Amino acid sequence: MRKSLVVLIALVTLALFSAAVSAQTIGLAISTLDNPFFVDLKDGAEAKAAELGVSLRVVDAQDDPARQLSGIEDLIARKVDLILVNPTDSAAVVPAILAANRAGIPVITIDRSADGGEVAAYIASDNVLGGKMAGEFIAELLGGKGKVVEIEGIPGTNAARERGQGFNEAMANYPEMEVVARQEAGFDRAKGLTVMENILQAQPEIDAVFCHNDEMALGAIIAIQAAGRADKIKVVGFDATDDAVAAVKEGRMLATVAQQPRLMGALGVEYALKVLQGEEVADFIPVPLELVK
Amino acid sequence: MKAIRQAGRPRQELFRRYGMLLVLVVMVFLASMLSDRFLTASNLLNVTRQVTINAILAAGMTIVIISGGIDLSIGSVVAISGALGAGLMATGAGWAAGVLVTLLVGLALGITNGLFIAYGQLPPFIVTLATMALARGFTQVYTGGRAITVTSQTFQWFGHGYVGSIPVPVIIMIIIYILGYFFFKRTKLGRLVYAVGGNEHACRMAGIRVNRVKVAIYGINGLLAGLVGVILTARLFSAQPTAGVAYEMDAIAAVILGGTSLSGGRGNIGGTIVGALIIGVLGNVFNLMDVSPFYQDVAKGLVILVAVLLDRLLHAGGGSLRRGVSSGADQAKSA
């Protein structure tokens, strides 16, 4: 009896002690909560923090870099253990990150990177993987054989480069898939329309179109419908905007690639704990995407 | 032909008038050699329809530039007029109200530009640069950064309909250019545009109400931007917050390619349609031939540069002849 009491006391003490150790506080400086994307990101982080038993303090910058700087200064003053920063702007966030560096508080950036300062990791959507998923989805749908068109975003942007890279990596795995045209339409609906009109003139046979964003995809769909080829040509977009998701539901668009902001927030908290435990983490943590179809 | 050879000046005049047409013909010839898909009836209609938006904007820009001005706001005016028209229709108003509001917003913004430029004595570049930012900003505020969908099929007809086998936007463009031709040839206002662009001071001394002319010019230009707002919204089944970005640049390029002088007083609307076609054919051929996007802008810039240079060289030889007959103001400009 006495023995078991001692064991119990020991266990309780240990539990209390370990709880005290793990009750770490993480700060989350979010760019804006006016955008549903970032609300989801925050919700994902909060759910993960509750699950892992860490406390999370959230400051909202309302898309104002100055407000973000003062928010991060508040977090530093409260001596949080680590700050997750979702920058309003990659350049404007640098002073805030330098302030955290001076205070010896590690920083992880989410969704947008920082142009300077010391950052433990950068967590963002894996555009390469997203492009690859879209490409593989199209290839499998066509049975590994067919003619596809790639409508690219503004040349030189990260999104265009990475989404295109992933898509073409997927195409390379299917020897009988042929990309018959690769044209740029500036992420713009009107340009997507005219570029697709021209491609339709040049290409009598097209089975599917992959667009680097939904705006161009929605423009391309108008061109395809006007040409009376909507039953033959499937369109896949990227971003899962409201208009695009509606088009997918109505069957006008085959699929669109969606980012996962909740998962992004959850991974933020997970990697924050890894960093605090002194684990080695990669500079870039890619967040997987999902296909809305 | 004999008559042309005898007199140097008409030949130079011929080159000046039709030099760009020659460039277009050569381009069409090359395009049909490079892509067997180019010279098909369906593609030619397709190109012509794609050209309409820039061509209509460039028609208005021709008037503005001949008068010695510039209008940088038209791309943003296209966006705000289209957004307000589509927004009205989204509340249940009919297509006619949508068209009317889109046109009126364009007209009102154009007149506002004109009032500031004429009565405020402000440079057109600055006034329209400000309108460009303001109209774009209002579009973003009004749309909340999202497209406004238009479901009226009658409205969509303005972008996608056909009369016989001719697309509706093409018919609208042809009507605009016929009206433009008569505007310059037959109306008093059309003549005054040249006069104001040639020598504004002399016009004022001669008792011409230059301020009214300017308000009318920018008003017409705004109205045409509103018309493009209708066509573009109809083409996309929706008004886009980013509609018309940088459209003013393509319009200016078409006007300059068409042989209109940026310093005012000289030019014609017939050249402008040729300039717009050159730009349109270029984009179409790039897509048909699947030219890498990295090279497209390089090629576009080079073609514009070479075409304008060619135009300059073609009638540079006539300089001495022209000098004898041209006015003092014209000489000062070409110096």
Could you say which structural class the secondary elements and strand pairing of chain B correspond to? mainly alpha
CATH topology of chain B: ABC transporter involved in vitamin B12 uptake, BtuC
Corresponding CATH superfamily of the largest domain in chain A: Response regulator
Shape of chain A: elongated
Helix proportion range of chain B: over 70%
Count of strand segments of chain B:
4
Mean pLDDT of chain B: 88
Classify the oligomer. Answer: heterodimer
Give, in order, the helices and strands of chain B: HHHHHHEHEEHHHHEHHHHH
Largest interface: A-B, 24 and 31 residues
Global geometry of chain B? globular
CATH architecture field of chain B: Orthogonal Bundle
Strand order, sheet with most strands of chain B: 1-4
Mean pLDDT of chain A: 91
Top CATH class of the largest domain in chain A: Alpha Beta
Query: Which class of secondary structure composition applies to the elements of chain A?
Result: alpha/beta
| CATH architecture field of the largest domain in chain A | 3-Layer(aba) Sandwich
How far apart the termini of chain A lie comes to 62 Å
Describe the protein.
The complex is a heterodimer of chains A (293) and B (335). By secondary structure, chain A is of the alpha/beta class. Chain A has 2 domains: 25-119 and 262-287, Rossmann fold; 127-258, Response regulator (Rossmann fold). Helix content of chain A is 48%, strand content 20%. Chain A has helices at residues 2-22, 36-52, 65-77, 94-102, 127-141, 158-172, 189-202, 214-226, 242-249, 261-276; strands at 25-30, 55-60, 82-85, 107-110, 121-125, 146-152, 177-184, 208-211, 234-238, 255-258, 284-287, 290-292. In chain A, the strands form 2 sheets. A 6-stranded parallel β-sheet of chain A has the order 2-1-3-4-5-11, sandwiched between helices. In chain A, strands 7-6-8-9-10-12 form a 6-stranded mixed β-sheet, sandwiched between helices. The relative contact order of chain A is 0.13. The mean pLDDT of chain A is 91. Chain B is an all-alpha fold. Chain B has one domain: ABC transporter involved in vitamin B12 uptake, BtuC. A two-stranded antiparallel sheet of chain B has the order 1-4. In chain B, strands 2-3 form a two-stranded antiparallel sheet. In chain B, helix 3 (41-66) runs parallel beside helix 8 (168-186), helix 4 (74-90) runs antiparallel to helix 5 and helix 7 packs across helix 11 (210-236). The radius of gyration of chain B is 21 Å and the shape is globular. The two termini of chain B are 31 Å apart. Residues 1-7 and 317-335 of chain B have low confidence and may be disordered. Classes of the chains: A alpha/beta (293), B mainly alpha (335). The A-B interface holds A 152, 155, 180-184, 188-190, 193-195, 197-199, 201-202, 215, 219, 222, 226, 242-243 and B 35, 37, 40, 42-43, 46, 50, 146-147, 149, 160, 232, 235-238, 240, 242-243, 245, 283-284, 286-290, 292-294, 296.
